[in-house]
Amino acid sequence: MNLLRLSWKNLTFKPLSTLLSIVLFALGVGLVSLLFLLQKQVEDNFEKSLAGIDLVIGAKGSPLQLILSSMYHLDAPTGNISIEEIRPFLNPKHPLIETSIPLSLGDSYRTFRVVGTSTDILDFYDVSLASGKVWSQNFEVVIGNTVAQKLSLKLGSTFSSSHGFLEDENLGHDHTDFKVVGILASSGTVLDQLILTTNQSYWLTHEHDAANEEAAPQEDHADHDHDDHDHAHDHEAVPVTLPSLLEEPGEKEITSLLIKFKGRNFQALNMQRSINENTDLQAATPAIEINRLYSLMDTGEKALRILAFVIIFVSGLSIFISLFASLKERQYELALLRVMGGTRATLFTLIILEGLLLASLGCLFGLLLSHGGMQVFAGTLEKAYGYTFSGWTFLPQEWYLVGGSLLLGLVAAILPAIKASKTDISETLLKG
Hints:
This protein is of the alpha+beta class.
């Protein structure tokens, strides 16, 4: 007697009831699994981009916005800060600061952000070049691996940037002519999504815009040859060794500064408060702000998780009701099984198998739903957040989800199974 086959035939005898139980179970399991996948991949992406950064310094505003814009490039900057204001933090002999990385933000190319910075940022994120070289002069760029793939850029490719982070032809810097000299190896960090160049390139781009705006109303225009000379930005005249920002005029501006301390002593830990209280700058600690972001996200996630577990509980109740209600109709069948040699344990096992089958199918379809859905929306998530998402990842937590599903199926089937095992053969057969 094949009990598993018999259990399956019993379930398919009432397809609508069986389907309802499986769909409810799949929705609950799928939602929980999807939340696990999203939480894990978001946290992993954020952790990779922390890069050991201890402090971010920028303009006054929201500290979370400063972190999201400067480290994760997911928000607009809080404003600009002058070289004069941050000169002390750029000093290589600073007693507390090991490395400081300047960032100039605000431009993009086809929605990928162009970041003016120093070559130290590659060591910060421990990223190497896949091909080419690091920029050595203005208007040379190193692009992230994702940028190269999505935009089909290669070594030697040239392009013009746009003001802002949206693709808008009206905001283009048509006079700029950036050249790709290096492509980064894939790292899983935010650098995969960025176009890196010098801070000076940023200044030259926007100074040219300002000069054009001032010259536009004038009737006495320069001749054509002079226009061509301006358009070229004197690229050939730019020295190979770029000056340090410490040598630049104090009125020049950048967006923010990424700081890594030499050690985490009292003075270093007190630097954030000192900057916020005694200067016009703002300092934010990445770990604190990201934990704050997680706590904001956690409220909605908990609500969805509670909803998912309620759905799973209701599906378990549905399995119980379905099995219990079917016993009255199946009494004659169960009695015949006893006559054919089945024991009370046989009937008990039969009903338990039916509960486990329903739970197993619900769990299987739920996992397929969550992983398939994650893969389908991975492109949309990547476009929105700039990070890679995948549905083809199975998490250890999901094994607990599978175990919990089977346990729920078992519990839901126990009472019906006990009742089935107590079926009175003679009385049931007499009733016919």
